[in-house]
Amino acid sequence: MKKNKNLLTNAFTLIELLAVIIILAIVALIATPIILDVVEDARKSAGLSEANMIYSGINNYCASIEMKKQMGTLGSEDVDCSNKNSFTEEEIGKMVNLGNVTIETNSYANGKLTSLKIISNKYTYVLCSNGGMALEGECDTTEPSVPESVSFAEDSWETIAAIVEAGKAE
Asked: Is the pTM of this model over 0.90?
């Protein structure tokens, strides 16, 4: 009997249990939107990564096909990229693993993709003019600022590199 009496005196009261449950509910209410934002950002990032891989994969595939053509080893299952203005989704599926991606539009010229529109994870990604992929409407069209050159002898290596990368070297 003494054991049962000890158990009852060491138990939590109903008020203590309710207080803990209320605190846990408040923490859950605060944490849920934050967790949902993190999940959504991860979806966007994964889709962007997928779009970049598809863009690079198509360009690399076509470059390797050009090499195969020159060597005379082009197979019948290979997609010939020459004389193409765009590819079907089936052709792109032979070039790269599309996963759950849908190709909306694409155009191809001079040995590389000139436009690409992809839907992945319910987001639309487009090829930007700078050669990178971005969420539709988020392409950075501003020119990078290029520092003014004083003279080659007086400029820092950072200034020289920035001028060369921007294609402003004379």
From this structure: no
